[in-house]
């Protein structure tokens, strides 16, 4: 899983909420909305000029990244979209597993001969080459046949954020292959059927993906430029004295409540969410969250100072 992206989503969302006064409706959790209201109440009683000395905020230089996509970007996005659009079809002309196949498997993972929590499943669909499992698992199934059972002697990586207790441990996965499916080759007919007539040909569908990618590239270039400008404004501003503790604390509370709402979305308790999704300890999470909270508090004060300038 993309641990750092997940943490960035939590903290980055909170920065937007904390720094720009976004309305509570943009976050579903009621208690997050309450924390935002608490921050706004604190800000209403603060004179930003007591805390912030604005630096240069006009005539700043910024480089806008090129908004372009490569043929490789387009092809990768096209294939990924086909994976959502078309249904895999059961392979009937062979019975051996190959790269790109989606195999339905039963597996049991054992450490020192004992099954461990989260290491077993039945009827699991795995696309060979997707990199979902630890190194050697998917590769070890290539060439295996439907109905065949195999034992894969593997080792968990030294850095395994999904479960740090498994890092570096040898493991044996007993795997049986139940069936093999493969994505069909795209045709005008199956594209038209899958899109309910919205696109009549492969080229029409590919063109729509290209246009979407181009728009995303422009949006990303713009947002990155504006982000860089805003960071310069905040960095150029100097603190005259320490930010009120109550403001930083409430920023932290927003981050904490928002993170808990993410955990609920995943159906996990807090400890499970931290270890399995974010890949951080509580101490690591608190440390990074405090950095974001302090930054967000300064951003709020800078924004208020700009409004008065």
Blueprint of the fold:
Layout: H1 3-20, H2 30-44, E1 52-53, H3 71-85, E2 89-90, E3 102-111, E4 114-127, H4 137-141, E5 149-155, E6 170-182, H5 188-194, H6 202-236, E7 238-239, H7 245-265, H8 270-278, H9 282-308
Antiparallel strand pairs: 1-7, 2-6, 3-4, 3-6, 5-6
Helix pairs in contact: 1-7, 1-9, 2-7, 3-6, 7-8, 7-9
Short account of what is shown:
By secondary structure, this protein is an alpha+beta fold. About 20% of the residues are buried.
Percent of residues in helices: 40-55%
Query: What would the average pLDDT be, to the nearest integer?
Result: 86
Rg (CA only): 25 Å
User: How many angstroms does the end-to-end distance come to?
Assistant: 45 Å
The total count of strands amounts to 7
The proportion of strand residues reads 15-25%
In total, the number of domains comes to: 2
Biggest sheet character: 5 strands, antiparallel
The unreliable regions are: 1-29
H/E series: HHEHEEEHEEHHEHHH
What structural class is derived from the secondary structure elements?
alpha+beta
What general form does the structure show?
A: flat
Count of helical segments? 9
